[in-house]
Amino acid sequence: MSLSEAQKQYIRDVREELEQLIRDLCAIPAPSLHEEKRAAFCRDWFVRNGFENVTVDEACNVLAPVSVTEDNPLFVVMAHTDTVFPDMEKLPFSEDEKFMYSPGVTDDTANLAVLMICARYYLQNHPSRDHGVLFVANSSEEGLGNLKGCRCIMARYGHRVRQFLTADGLYPARMVTRAVGSHRYRIRVSTEGGHSFANFGNRNAIAVLASLTTLLYSMKVPQEGNSRTTYNVGTVSGGTSVNTIAQDAEMTFEYRSDSRNCLAKMKRFLENAVETFRASGAEISVELIGDRPCSGEVDPGAFDLLKNKVRSAIGDIVGEEAVEAASSTDCNIPLSLGIPAVCISCCRGSGAHTRSEKLEKASLAEGCSLLLDILFRD
Known about the structure:
This protein is an alpha+beta fold. It has helices at 5-13, 15-26, 36-48, 105-125, 148-157, 205-216, 260-279, 300-317, 332-336, 363-376, and strands at residues 55-56, 62-66, 74-80, 94-95, 99-101, 132-138, 161-167, 174-179, 181-190, 194-195, 229-238, 244-245, 248-257, 283-292, 323-327, 341-344, 349-350, 358-360.
């Protein structure tokens, strides 16, 4: 399918509006689990632009339905409102002729803005179909947001969702079709501690935690076919002072895999490692703080319909052969439920998840073209 002249003209006409929308969104802090202000902005934007029955649900998702009835099949199209950065103050923003610079500008602000602009065109020009399209500016995709927004949407609508698409990332030739699952933990060690001189010989929580970390890093990751499995200690904290034997220390630890079996083996290794240290007398608590599922069993025929549609659109618009990939995205939830789901990118840039993130302005027209192509393609 090639875009119509009307669609091409629309994309040209909205260039400045789209860039301003990105500026406006970047000015609104939206760390995971604190997206209320950005959600309110998106809700008001959808209402001003002609959408009816726009709602914000209990997970802070903004829902903008088009031709959605009480029971018709649904195509869910989303982009997340949250950023990976914890800042509650306005993040720095600058731009020049070619780029916009701001933490979160590509992940996922530009993708969200493209979704909003394309959703308006679809509202005004959509063909008659037997399914509705539910556009969602969803919450809590990043980090310890734990896909809260998408979980809420799937809990409410999953039985009606026939296809699912999310816009995230900055590689338009890539289509994520496999879910990388993960388990994330806060592991805390407690010991008797004491004075570094008077109580020398007492167990040090930091030393115990370091030994546990060394054991975890000694593991050989499991393999199943072409699967990939990783692990990481992300943060470490603890202790009181240089002359105190630490009573408490904690770390955050995660492992990831695109294989359910490998994920289960990693869980057993962690459990066995912790029990080994508990048996030596250490007090260790393990709190699960994040759980993202791997892909489940998706009907191959139904999945191919969506993948072929996206693959063809990428070929026609981006001019490259689509590359299928595995990643951790909002697609994890529908894929785990057996719902065909693909993640695409509607912008280009660099530095995602860093404070030097930048967006290539010229890529926005390509992103709009790609999403419109998919929305209108049978």
